[in-house]
Amino acid sequence: MNEEKDMADARAILAGYRASIDNIDAALIHMLAERFRCTKAVGVLKAEHGLPPADPSREQQQIARLRQLAKDANLDPDFAEKFLNFVVREVIRHHEQIAANNGAAKAG
Ligand SMILES: C=C(O[C@@H]1C=C(C(=O)O)C=C[C@H]1O)C(=O)O
């Protein structure tokens, strides 16, 4: 009887955590969508002015900043760096595409 109650309690606690995880995942998706909306505008600006898609010195500053924020928040700084690099790689891919399309539009 007690075992059944323990299991029911554990399931209720798990469901509560999962509701929070689902909310956090939704917030992450919205924040990423907003970040990419912004970086795509940066890609257009760069393409229009002949600026390079990647800016390694800016990325180094971001990595240093995010590593410190991660440490302060008790998050693995290596994970924070890997996550930023993953996102930035995708941004640079978008910028390269935008630049190629911009060049094609000017040539055509
Ligand atoms: C968005 C930019 O372009 C690239 C992407 C970055 C990012 O996603 O934060 C940072 C630097 C650049 O390599 C930028 O130059 O600010």
UniProtKB/TrEMBL annotation:
Domain (Chorismate mutase) ranges: 8-99
Keyword Transmembrane helix on entry: no
Pfam families referenced in this protein's UniProt entry, alphabetically: CM_2
Coiled-coil regions, chain positions: none
Gene3D superfamilies in the cross-refs: Chorismate mutase (1.20.59.10)
EC number: 5.4.99.5
GO molecular-function terms, A-Z: chorismate mutase activity
Keywords: Isomerase
InterPro entries to which the protein is assigned, alphabetical: Chorismate_II_sf, Chorismate_mutase-related, CM_bact, CM_dom_sf, CM_II_prokaryot
Domain of life, source organism: Bacteria
Enzyme class: isomerase
Protein name: chorismate mutase
Species name: Mesorhizobium vachelliae
